[in-house]
Amino acid sequence: MQPVQARNYINGEWVSGSQEFESLNPANLKETIGTAPLSNAGDVDQAVSAAKHAYESWRDLSWVKRAEYVDAFAQLLKRDLAEISTLVTRECGKPINEGRADAVEALHMAQYVAGMGRTPNGFTVSSEIAAKDAYILRKSKGVVACITPWNFPSAIPLWVILPSVVAGNTVVFKPAEQTPITAHKLMELFHEAGFPAGVINLLHGTGEDAGDPLVKHKDVAAILFTGSRAVGKYIQQVAAGDAYKFAATEMGGKNATIVLEDADLGIAVNACVLGAFKTSGQRCVSTSRIIIDRKLEPEFTRQYLEKVKRIKIGNGLNEEIFMGPLIEEGGVEKWKHHNQKAREEGAEVLIDGQVLTEGEYACGNFVSPFVYRFDGYKKNTFCLREEAFSPHVAIIPVSGMEEAVSVYNDTDYGLAMAVITEDYRKWRWVRDHADYGLGYVNLPSIGAEVHLPFGGVKASGNGHPGAEGILDSVTHRVAFTVNHAHEIVMAQGLSTDI
Q1: Cβ(204)–Cβ(177) under 8 Å?
Q2: Which of 234, 60, 64, 47 is nearest to 143 (CA)?
C-alpha cells in the first residue's frame, strides 16, 4: 500500500505542516504507513479558535440534529470497517482480529451516541412551590480537547469525541503520534459525514509541541485524556490552575485476575491468557498479576505455562497470530527493565521472555511473554506495583479471599479487576472490597463495552470515566426554575414584603 499523506484538519480544511514525522508498522519497521505534520502552538491556536467560533452555532442545534450527524458518520464507519480494521493492525501492530474488534467498538460507540440524541438529557423535579416547575438540564461546556492513545486508535477517540459533540461541544482532537494515519482516516469520515467546519478539528504531533499548548489554552473548557500516569497527573495539575477548566483522565493500571479456591480452572487459565497477552499486554486493563489461592496454584501454573508457550507471535495480518509486536523500541526497553526488576527482587522466572530478532521478527519490535512467580506476596516491590504495559505477568499464591483482595489493593492503581469463582457470595465480597473502576466475574480483566462507564480510581484516574460516563465530563448540570404564579413565592419562606 502507498503511504498516506496525513494532514491536520482545521475549520473544515486540510492543512499541511512545515515539518512531518513518519508512522511505521511496528511489525515491519521498513514499512511506512504514512506521514503527518508536526503541529505547534500556532496550529493549536488556529484549531481552538475554529472550534470556539463553531461552538456558537453548533450548540444551538438540537440534540436530535447533532445526533443525525453522528448517525451519518456511523454509516460511513460501517462501510469502511474492513479498511479501518487492517489500518489499525498495520499501524499499531495488533492482530487482525483485534484490529476488527477495535473498529467494531468504534462503530458501536457511534451507534450508541447517535441514539443519545433521542434519549432524555435532563429531567424535571418537583419544586417545593406548586406553582413552580424545576428542571435539571445538561449544558455543553465549550471547546473540548480530546487526547487519545495509540493502542485503540479508532475506538477510544470516538469514546470521547462523539459524546462531546452530541452534547453540543466542539472538539480539538490530538491523537497519539504513533497512530496518526488511523486518526486521519476517522477525520476523513467526519468530513464526508458533513460535520460543519470547526466542530471537529484534528492536530497531529507530539505531546510536548501540540498536546501541551492544547491543554494550557485559555479557550479549552475540558480535557479528556487517556494515557500514562505521569502525563495524566500533569494535565490534572494544569487544569487545576484554571478554575473553569475540567480534566477527565484515565491513566493505566496494575490490574489483576483473582483466582479463588473454587474457581473453574479452564475459565481461569483462559481468562489469564486473554487478560495478559492480548495487544501484547499493551492495554491499560491488561492483567499483569495473577493472584491465586495456594490450593489451586500448582495445577493452574502447569496449565497456564503450557498454554502460554503455545502463543503464536508475529505480524498481525496473519489470521493465526495471537500476539503482535510492541509499539516501539521504548516499549521493548521498558519490558526489559520490568523483567530485570523482577529478577532482582527475587522472582522465580517461569518463562524467560526474549527479544525476537530472527527471520520474520528481524524488522519488528517483537518479544515473547515473561512469566514469573513469587512464593507468597512480597511487599514494596517495583515489579508487583508498577505498570509494565507489555507481556509481563506475575503469579502470586495467597491463602484465601481476604489476602487476595489485600494483595490486589496494594498498589497505587485501581483500574481493572477480575475474579474467578463459582461462589456468588465470594465474588460479591470481592466486588465490594477491591479498589477498581472495571470489575469482571469469570472473565478476563479486558472487555469494555461502550454503554458502560470506563475509568479507574486512585492513580488510575480521577473518577470521571470515558465511554458512557463521559457526558458528565463534557456538560454542566444546571438548575432551571420557572414560576407560573402571578406573585413571587419562595421555597424558604422569603417574601417581597417591605
Answers
A1: yes
A2: 47
The rounded distance, in Å, linking the Cα atoms of 257 and 252 is 16
CB-CB contact of 30 with 200 (8 Å):
no
DSSP percent split of the chain into helix, strand, coil, nearest 5: 40, 25, 35
Contact 387, 461 (CB under 8 A): no
- Cell numbers of 296, please? 489451586
The dihedral formed by the CA atoms of 395, 398, 402 and 403, expressed in degrees to the nearest 10: -90
Residue 168, sorted as left (phi over 0), alpha (psi -120 to 50) or beta, turns out to be: left
Q: Which neighbouring-strand residues pair with 170?
A: 143
Instruction: Kindly give the residue spans of alpha helices, DSSP state H, lying in 228-387.
Output: 229-240, 265-277, 297-308, 329-344
Q: Kindly report, residue by residue over 130-179, the tens digit of the pLDDT.
A: 999 999 999 999 999 999 999 999 999 999 999 999 999 999 999 999 99
Cell matching residue 450: 461502550
The rounded distance, in Å, linking the Cα atoms of 412 and 405 is: 14
| Cα 394 to Cα 35: distance, rounded to the nearest angstrom | 38
- Report the DSSP pairing between strands 220-226 and 143-147: parallel
Collapsing DSSP to helix, strand or coil, 158 comes out as helix
Q: Active-site residue numbers?
A: 250, 284
Low-confidence ranges of the chain (pLDDT < 50): none
Which amino acid, 306? E
Cα–Cα distance measured from residue 181 to residue 22, given in angstroms and rounded to the nearest whole number: 10
Pairwise CA distance, residues 60 & 452, whole Å = 28
Virtual CA dihedral for 199, 200, 205, 208, nearest 10 degrees? 60
The pLDDT, as a whole number, for residue 493 is 82
Backbone angles phi, psi at 214, to 5 degrees: -70, -50
Bridge partners (DSSP) of residue 9 are: 14, 202
Q: Please give the full DSSP string across 49-77, using - where no structure is assigned.
A: HHHHHHHHHHTTS-HHHHHHHHHHHHHHH
Alpha helices of 80-219 — where are they, by DSSP H? 81-92, 96-116, 155-166, 180-192, 212-216
Cα dihedral: 282, 284, 289, 293 (round 10) = -130
Task: Locate the DSSP E strands across 315-377.
Answer: 348-351, 355-356, 366-367, 370-373
Instruction: Identify the pLDDT of residue 468.
Output: 77
pTM above 0.85, yes or no: yes
pLDDT at 234: 95
Measured in Å, how far apart are the chain's first and last C-alpha atoms?
Answer: 81
